[in-house]
Amino acid sequence: MGAVVVLVGAVLAGCGLRGAGQEGGSSSYTLRLSHVVSPSTPKGQAALRFEQVVEERSGGRIAVEVYPNSELFGDEDELQGLQSGAVQALAPASAKFTTIAPRLQVLDLPFLFRQVDDIPRVASRDTPVGRAIFANPELARRDIEVLELWDNGLKQLSSNNRIVRAEDMTGLRFRIQPSDVLRAQFAAWGAQSTPLSFSEVYTALQQGLIDGQENPWSNIESQKMHTVQRFITESDHGYVGYVLVVNRPFLESLPPDLQQVVRDGATESARFNREVAARINEEAEQEIVAARTTEIVQLSPAERAALEASVVPGVWQEMAPVIGQDVIDQLLAERRR
Ligand code: LMR
Question: Which of 148, 150, 202, 269 lies in disulfide reach of 242, CB 3.0 to 4.6 Å?
């Protein structure tokens, strides 16, 4: 009877269960994790660590299949795939949740973190920011459970124009992730913005359909975006973080010990991700410098402060109705500390 219940649950959760002898050998369950970046990046590495831990600790009863580089699902269809159960786990950047859980855009606020080390404290589960992420009612309603937050790092501005001041962006066209916060950020800088999937960015830059984009070093380098951008301003002006989510019916279809294995795999992958993310981004920056395709523009403290003042607190307050005034108030109080 127990086996029947498990079987029905897993099938309803989207074919997560398979029998011995099927693809994947003797594993009882398959957990597909799809993402859009290269395996070499902080997210790619965290996904591989998750795979390793879950397979080892489940004694092979769960087979984890990681699909990088939008191979299985891309930005445009991955959340649909998760909800239908075609894929069991994802780690989209916070901005990708805009239409289904707009409060997650809190992580996209410009100049939110002065350094990546601040993130665990500011976004811990017992803060308003943490609750907007980990106890998000809109995700819960869609049977999506948040397991962890993975980091990439801070974003840099790449462009074919030299950017030092906000005015340098007037009229330029930037690719953005689909986020109201990011649209407001570029509007405050007098620039235009176009939402595009991550997999489309390189080609759009190469063909001159857009003038620039924003991403951490690891994404710029692994997609070779620097080879089609004349300048990268080391602006550290925003954060790219990932919300590791699972299809809840799938998770609950697993026996309790395996549910715990998945949660432990998430915890361990997040710990590992924090250990490696900064180094991966530093190495990517060095690769770009060594490639000599792109001029790296450094900002003086005064220039960076001016760029920050052009969007904080203006864009934060503009987004308070979407993100929650309580969250914005907490963040503004943090800055005064
Ligand atoms: C993006 O620009 O779409 C990304 O930051 C993608 C990602 O998952 O890192």
Answer: 150
Pocket test for ligand 1, best of 73, 219, 237, 280 (most atoms within 8 A of CB): 219
In CATH, 12-18+25-104+115-152+241-283 is 3.30.2010.10: no
* Residues lining ligand 1, Cβ inside 6 A: 36-37, 43, 93, 152, 177, 198, 215, 219, 240
Asked if residues 273 and 45 have their Cβ atoms less than 8 Å apart, the reply is: yes
Domain locations along the chain = 12-18+25-104+115-152+241-283, 156-238+290-336
CATH number of 156-238+290-336: 3.40.190.170
- DSSP character at residue 103: G
- Report the candidate in 114, 199, 203, 210 with the shortest Cα–Cα distance to residue 169: 210
Encoding tokens for residue 44?
């790619």
Task: Output the residue whose Cα is nearest ligand 1's atom 3.
Answer: 198
CA distances from 208 to 159, 174, 177, 313, 329 (A): 11, 11, 18, 32, 40
Run of H or E residues at 62: strand 62-67
The tens digit of pLDDT for each residue in 93-141 reads: 999 999 999 999 999 999 998 888 888 888 889 988 899 999 999 999 9
Contacts of 26 (CB under 8 A, 6+ apart): 20, 60
